[in-house]
Amino acid sequence: MAEQNDKSVSPATLMDVAKKAGVSIATASRALNGSARKVRNDSYVKVMEAAKKLNYRPNAYAQAVAKGAAPSIVLLVSDISDPYFASVSQGVVKAAGEHGIAVTIGVAAGPKEELEAVCKATATRPRGIIISESEYIDAPERTALEAELRQYEAAGGRAVFILNRNLPFPAVDVANEVGARAIAKLVVDSGYRRPAILKGDDNHRSSRERLGGVTDALNKAGIAVDPRAIVNGRFSRTEGYAAVMQMARSGLLIAGAGAAYDGAGVDSIIALNDVMAIGAMTALRANDIEPGTQIGVTGFGDIPYSVDVHPSLTTVHLPLTEMGQAAVDCVLTERDDAGTNGTTVSAQQSANRLIFVQSTPDIVLRESLPHR
Questions:
Q1: Where does the HTH lacI-type domain lie (predicted)?
Q2: Strand, coil or helix: what is 270?
């Protein structure tokens, strides 16, 4: 059993291992770092036993520098085919490349896969791990994920989240609720009164924050959303499509007996991310409903495709590429209370700081939400 299991105790150093094993620091270093120079078998065994008892983890970045190896960053995303993650990845790769740092991109669809991916990533000893992932805040893997990342940082690595999960690591965040209130207000100001809302899972942080902002703005406008018009599109284009298709088949969208809003039907769809909005527009057309003409549609994120679809998508702009760049900057700089690129930072402890790359998201008005 490791002797250093109290998080208040400083991580064991190479000197601690050498002292406990009764060998020189040079011998301990050669044994632990796989040096080409031979280490006597008895000394090797003593060093390994001491390292295990002390729960010693080498400083990965220092090792890489000492060996002349190029440092690397591991980026974990939920779905590399999603334009949201593709744009974030582009920012990470660009910023890292400017510093001569290679980026390895891993895909993990959920909390279990994410924990497994983080454990594999720490074993490769990268300089940093950037997690732009599922955001499931109540996942049972949360405690194990935090413990793994704490050990990784104690060994000299840096962990950064893109979008905060209230874990003790830096996070690049955006004002989800502010953007959601703004897009909902635009829907109301454009003359729409009967919205359907496409959300994600209830324990998905961004979905929860955006849904709260949308419903708050609608409530202030005196609009009570029909509960049947709030559906789960799981932040996916295919699931967004399926959710709207099901609403159409159930007769909820178009005015008539059994339609939402006491038979009046839906006049708009507020999707809490862009890919759900794009899926929704495809589903509307499949039911001979023209998006942007019969039913207004909005998204959230401003992915590159949002301007290319027809009608072009009204959405909340998020600086996706800049978010990736800010995460790399955080990996490469020491912790302090300064913001990144002139942005603001929360009043949390510096070890758990948030880098707000955009405190007030912009609304991009396009053809999918004409004024009524």
A1: 12-67
A2: strand
